[in-house]
From TrEMBL:
GO terms for molecular function: FAD binding; oxidoreductase activity. Residues 77-251 form the FAD-binding PCMH-type domain. The keyword Heme does not apply. It comes from Gossypium lobatum. Residues 1-25 form the signal peptide. The keyword Flavoprotein applies. Keywords: Cell wall, Disulfide bond, FAD, Flavoprotein, Glycoprotein, Nucleotide-binding, Oxidoreductase, Secreted, Signal. It is found in: Secreted, Cell wall. This is FAD-binding PCMH-type domain-containing protein. Belongs to the oxygen-dependent FAD-linked oxidoreductase family. Its cofactor is FAD. It comes from the Eukaryota.
Amino acid sequence: MTPPLSPPSLLPLLLVAFNICFSLAASNSVYESFVQCLKTRSNSSDNISDIVYSHSNATYETVLEQYIRNARFNTSSTPKPVIIITPLTESHVSAAVICSNNIGFQLRIRSGGHDFEGVSYVSDQPFFILDMFNLRSISINMADQSVWVQSGATLGELYYRIWEKSKVYGFPAGVCPTVGVGGHISGAGYGNMVRKYGLSVDYVVDAKIVDVNGNILDRKAMGEDLFWAIRGGGGASFGVILAFNIKLVDVPETVTVFKLERTLEQNATDVVHKWQSVAPTTDDNLFMRMLVQPVTLNKQKTIKISIMALYLGDVNSVVPLLAEDFPELGLVTEDCFEMSWIESALWWASFGKGTSPTVLLDRESYHVKFMKRKSDYVKTPISKDGLQWLWKKMIELEEPGLVFNPYGGKMNEIKETETPFPHRAGNLFKIQYSINWKDMGIEADKRSRSLVNRLHSYMTSFVSKNPRSAYLNYRDLDIGITKNWSYQEGKVYGESYFNGNFERLVDVKTVVDPHNFFRNEQSIPPRTIKAWNEKNEGSIPPSTSKAWNKSKPYVMIILFMAIVHII
């Protein structure tokens, strides 16, 4: 059979069209059709045109760029959305899903913009962005220690609002205050209380989601399978997360933090080697993150390690604890600082002593840079010989660094099938690979990514295997992407992120979004597309061609006008 016209065959011309004459991309026919659809579908009396931005709108670039958190995806060649929707109500979200689907454009969903690969706001096909930043209400019920938090809220806002209500409750989530709640929690979410309490998703008791048909569903309405899937499987594969209902956890009135640094000349190798056995097994109240960086000190290249710690208790407890468990570290009372839990959130976010917690409400306190991240899991300690070999390689590479995050504690108590996130018992620590750079351009990008990829390759023998596991919220497109939205393509990255839970995620996807409207480069595929590809030798599945045929008239108009402009 003859396959439908394939979008990838037009990709080079489309990119030229968008880059040269992008104002045409948000043509009146697309914008007006979408706005008219939104007006008829929305329950709100608001002026719909005020929440929909085309490229011709004077504030389009401001809205687009304000939540781009990786400079790699804010260049002149980065594909831009045809339309940006900034909903004010849940009905706006529902209408946006229906109308985007009807018109035939992809919908990318952004809550905080911290996706390391820009998947929430970049696509190589014509697309809209549903930007959730206006939906950020936080409603706290101290009677049962629960919170309804909308997906556009940031972690900093969540922490601040909890602190306003109580000084003895907190929430186990990330240390970067500008991260959006929607993406963080739906991707599992973890922070410096992971050993005491586990993941963010372990405290989600309800949720609200907009499905592909525009229905607004809570836990009861969506069913337990979908509720399971969005707690770590990535919400953007299944719908639009509106809000999570979470349970708070106890935190003491006084916590302790410390940061210690060592170089190779200061027994760093011994400290790292011992850290691998102590950090995942010590008191569950203690979390010790370790940064490993190549540096030059006194004109000599070496390795510097930095151990940053949170202890849910006072200094008089943690110092003797580590004197017994970790004497190689040499922790003394003078290294430690006692403070409240909210002050520790500021300390971890690198705010200075005395900074007001109100800074957590600042959405602009994030410095955007060029970056690339990757991840791994370690199940057996790396030997001293292995570490010394690794130091040599890192010194040769000069720039990429590593961040070791210990597991154990509560993480060992929760079954790997409890949520889509499978990396529980048996994992000593997670590794984040990190490189940042300042120079713009393709060459700087290639060079920096090559360096971190080489470091990732050097680590192969030390990390998990079959599959080589990775963390969804440290998204890495190098693991694999889907071009035809097939099951086989999805399995490559899906098993790395979810191990055996990938199959159940595919089953859920097949039921709730069989035509694969909610998709991106690493989304969960439905099995229906696998069957289509096997039967039709890889031609575009009917669900995709359906959407393509809807958008084809708009895209062909855009392409034609751009070619005329070039001529």
